[in-house]
């Protein structure tokens, strides 16, 4: 089974690319969706988050806006939150991979916003990075509710910059040129991976 890692900086189009992968029949594990489930009412992380960050849990669920305001302004607090969440997310990912192996899926994808930051590339055979010009990224992100330049700066300070993600990618998908362009590029990568025409061990592309 080939494991494709999908990542990219904020607003670069990970969710959109993940939806395209699913349309192409590739099962995708979404780390961010796993975090949402863990933080929802009854979620496995709610108790620990309530204990560590008291004012951020309301009516049994995490208030993500409030938690974001706390952790994106303080590196130590973000680390504390990650220490609660990342092992739980990893466990869900392992379950997903085990199920996919049992179903003999030839290709699956892991959508992980912090793939490089958490050394997730070591668990992937091929890494796809979604990327767009800075002005496109800013336009997408700054129109979101509750997003400010300060909040964005706090988030970006904790992520590998886009140019380094691009440099470490096996494939870069440009998302600033329209959906059709991205879909074509993703479809091409999926085809090559399914045909095993791209060597899946780091940077060596060996299309024959
Ligand atoms: C702090 C939380 C509640 C804020 O939620 P909110 O809905 O306001 O923002 P959202 O999740 O959409 O994140 C906004 C941007 O910040 C980035 N981001 C999220 N967590 C982190 C992190 N730990 N380090 C760096 N960037 C992060 C996201 O990739 C995204 O680009 C949430 O981001 C969270 O629980 N983060 C910790 C879990 C985590 O590490 N998730 C990312 C990988 S699975
Ligand atoms: N390939 C694409 N072509 C055109 N527009 C796109 C493309 N991908 C994403 N977009 C647009 O960019 C915005 C952000 O996309 P998306 O939500 O997929 O980003 P993301 O990387 O998942 O964001 P985050 O890092 O915050 O989770 C959306 O408005 C979406 O319509």
From TrEMBL:
<keyword id="KW-0173">Coenzyme A biosynthesis</keyword>
<comment type="function">
    <text>Catalyzes the phosphorylation of the 3'-hydroxyl group of dephosphocoenzyme A to form coenzyme A.</text>
</comment>
<dbReference type="InterPro" id="IPR001977">
    <property type="entry name" value="Depp_CoAkinase"/>
</dbReference>
<protein>
    <recommendedName>
        <fullName>Dephospho-CoA kinase</fullName>
        <ecNumber>2.7.1.24</ecNumber>
    </recommendedName>
</protein>
<keyword id="KW-0418">Kinase</keyword>
<dbReference type="GO" id="GO:0015937">
    <property type="term" value="P:coenzyme A biosynthetic process"/>
</dbReference>
<keyword id="KW-0547">Nucleotide-binding</keyword>
<feature type="binding site">
    <location>
        <begin position="11"/>
        <end position="16"/>
    </location>
    <ligand>
        <name>ATP</name>
    </ligand>
</feature>
<dbReference type="Pfam" id="PF01121">
    <property type="entry name" value="CoaE"/>
</dbReference>
<dbReference type="InterPro" id="IPR027417">
    <property type="entry name" value="P-loop_NTPase"/>
</dbReference>
<comment type="pathway">
    <text>Cofactor biosynthesis; coenzyme A biosynthesis; CoA from (R)-pantothenate: step 5/5.</text>
</comment>
<dbReference type="GO" id="GO:0005524">
    <property type="term" value="F:ATP binding"/>
</dbReference>
<keyword id="KW-0067">ATP-binding</keyword>
<keyword id="KW-0963">Cytoplasm</keyword>
<dbReference type="GO" id="GO:0004140">
    <property type="term" value="F:dephospho-CoA kinase activity"/>
</dbReference>
<comment type="similarity">
    <text>Belongs to the CoaE family.</text>
</comment>
<keyword id="KW-0808">Transferase</keyword>
<dbReference type="GO" id="GO:0005737">
    <property type="term" value="C:cytoplasm"/>
</dbReference>
